[in-house]
Amino acid sequence: NGNAGFQQVLERLESDPVCQRLSLKSFLILPFQRITRLKLLLQNILKRTPPGSEEEVQATQAYDALEKLIKDCNENVQRMKSTEELIYLSQKIEFECKIFPLISQSRRLVKCGELTALDFNTLSPKWKVTTRPIYLHLFNDCLLLSRPKE
Question: Which residues are in the DH domain (predicted)?
Fold first, then answer.
């Protein structure tokens, strides 16, 4: 989005009749859609092959290989999403001092959310409760507490 030249070229390419007015995103998703269609096709082939035949053995091997490929693709997509979340989070969070790098190959965000911290002022004769928002970011290897900038 930040590169105007790229956006112009992309718009020109997407409007080209050869692309059939499809976006770049649809071309990136197309191989995944084809893989899942192949899985359905192989399932139907397996239903119609005679049990114990050579065709069944070959179709089963192809189905198993395709399932492994789909599993690998899904894992890589999840890994990329996790990395994108870390990049987005590292752009939002500002550390007073760098304790550890937020973006790491092995680190992934498990859960995050806003909580309300309660502060009890015990110095005054009447207990005074103040609230302030804090954010919890649970990673697979650590827990990070943050608060909005004042």
Answer: 1-76
